[in-house]
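Quality-control log, excerpt.
Job 1 of 2 completed; input and output follow.
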Amino acid sequence: MRSPMNTKQAFEQFASWLTTPLGQYVLQSESAWYDQRSVDLFGYRAVQLQLPGLDALRANRISWRCAVADRGSVAVHCLAHALPFASQSLDLLVLPHVLDFAEDPHGVLREADRVLVPEGRLLLTGFNPWSLWGLRRLQPGESPPWQGHFLPLPRLKDWLALLGLEVMQDDFLCYRLPVQRGRWLERSRLLDVAGDRWWPGGGGVYCLDVVKRVRGMCIIEPAWRRIGAAGVTPVPVAEDRGDLL
């Protein structure tokens, strides 16, 4: 049975793991995805939680950006399930693997729903249990990332739906073998192309682009008054007759 590990310890070990060959593969793959999804998102405030080594907002053009973690050299220190931001104050929130190591993943999503403005965007990534990477974590005595939650995507989507958070797009990354040897990583690089085509849900990492919907919200259009026949007195127009000239 795996020994319990708090969020701080888990993220510290995961950050160290990202410097390994396999971790660098994950980091590069996810950085490219975050760049693609965030570049055209606009608003006033954007926040990224945890993992200072991954700048998931580098391609985004929102001027007010902030990094948040419970430790390290970041702008704000706090817990992921208790963010120091007012309700409906953020336009973009990024959670790279936060749900994998948070003590209360559902609480993190509730907090994300609280701080996002209506139609605000949530970008998140996590490890997919239904993949070769999911099988890898079954080995005993493993450390992060293999001790993470590895949340099943259908369950995660159910949580999001209950909060009124709608998945706009889901993608999968990292089909290569989950091994640290650089030679085997390079040999299995063709799996990234073949897996995305033949096994689209089998990538080691899932990526979700989510929007906050607000039930009952509608766009109020200006109430233009129609000028009808009942409200206007018609003006007579003289006929063009020769006897009037």
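Job 2 of 2 completed; input and output follow.
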Amino acid sequence: MPSNAPATNTLPAALPTDIEVFRAGTRTADDGSVHTITEADLAASAAAYDPAVHEAPHTVGHPQHNAPAYGWIERFAVRDGVLQIAASKQVEPQFAEMVATGRVKKRSMSFYHPNDGSNPKPGIWYPRHVAWLGAQPPSVKGLKDVNFSDAGAICFSEPVTPTTTPTDPSPQEPDDMSKELQEQLAKTQAELQASKDEAAKAQAEAAAAKKAAEQATATAASFAETARANRKAGYVSFAEAQIQAGKLLPKDKEMAVATLEALADTKPVEFAEGDATRKVSPAQWLQDLIAAAKPTVSFGEFAGGGSGGNAAAQSGQAKGKSDAEIDQAAQAYARHHKVNYAEALTAVTASFSS
């Protein structure tokens, strides 16, 4: 029976809200300087924070040059004298998982000093970044701010709980957890980038294949169109040759060509012819039938007069007339005298030859 229990390996979509990062009071910074930051100061910091001016990143440990960033802080808030992260955005899922599983717990808050010349909002403690630390918090004494090159960075690495004593002299082990987490996150990011590169490559290959297929289809269509045009030209040439041979009437030329085109794509037909079986396309069969027929009339042009003229009349040939002229005259004669085309053709041919 399937279980309805939620999956336990789903990565959190984002960091939780209301993450405490700094408590008002007199604090000793990582460089040994002592500063008193009141609740009003923190309220001013939260109100003045503007990501468009300076967006404070989430970092793991204290990487050089403030890289890489694993998310960005969207808003700060103050509650009961504690500065909190009200909302974050663009957080790496692997980083959010590490926070959710407790692999990084301590936070190190860094501010711009109110009198620092590089402070984007002079006169207030402006948030610079929040560094997440591993199993052990860093030692207060001698810890340098290596996240930013500006000299005005003020970092407070002690936990935010009220019971914390900033100058706790108890020895602390080196924090190697931050380095391990950075390496893991870097590896994950490299794998994600490799996946993105592979997907982009596959997309490019698919686009190239689609383009090649479209070109092949266009080429095939062009070849097919050319083949149809050449085939029709062949049928037209065939019909004109049969008209010249007297086996096809001029008026039937267009119908003969259209019929041959209609039959061109019909499947070949097999039939017995003597002791053999013949396979032929209907279009070819019709062409063979027309070509094998006896001439119905003989058109031609030659001079009349004397016995030659009488011979021309008897053979159905017309003096000085083209095929088209004879055809037009025959059609007009047939309409006027209400006779069939063959009778009209005989009559006009005789009249032209006399």
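Post-run check on job 2. Residues 239 and 255 are 10 Å apart (CA to CA).
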